[in-house]
Amino acid sequence: MSKISEREFARICRGIYEDRDIICRHNPIGTRGETLLWMLLGCLMSYLDLTEIETPCFAGKMTAETYRDAILFVLRNRKAEEFDAGRHLEKLTKE
Asked: For 79, phi and psi rounded to 5 degrees?
């Protein structure tokens, strides 16, 4: 099972934040926060090599909170060490 360190998680979040304007311009799926969290979830699914069974399933309209919860769910058993992912998500979605 692939794991992620806080350092690597922070690096991915920082990269998405730095590219936020172009990400949102080319992926207008919802609000700015929803789009950035959607991108992060996609990156984590690839980085952690999640199987179809491990990939979160969604029903209904997606919100930033839904993406946030899915990211925290994915990280629950995939952190190399304990860290506060929420802190990084807050930085990622700040305007």
From this structure: -80, 135
| Residue 68: both structure tokens together | 């946030």
CA distance 18 to 91: 11
Q: Do 40 and 15 contact (CB within 8 A), yes or no? A: no
Q: Round to whole Å and give the CA distance between 50 and 56.
A: 10
Q: Which pLDDT score, from 0 to 100, does residue 28 have? A: 80
DSSP-derived letter for residue 52 is T
Predicted confidence (pLDDT) at residue 71 exceeds the cutoff of 80: yes
Pair 8, 87: CB distance under 8 Å:
no
**Nearest-angstrom CA–CA distance, 60 and 78:** 26
Q: What is the pLDDT of residue 15?
A: 97
The pair of structure tokens assigned to 81 is 């060490």
11 φ/ψ angles, rounded to the nearest 5 degrees? -65, -45
Rounded to two decimals, the pTM is 0.92
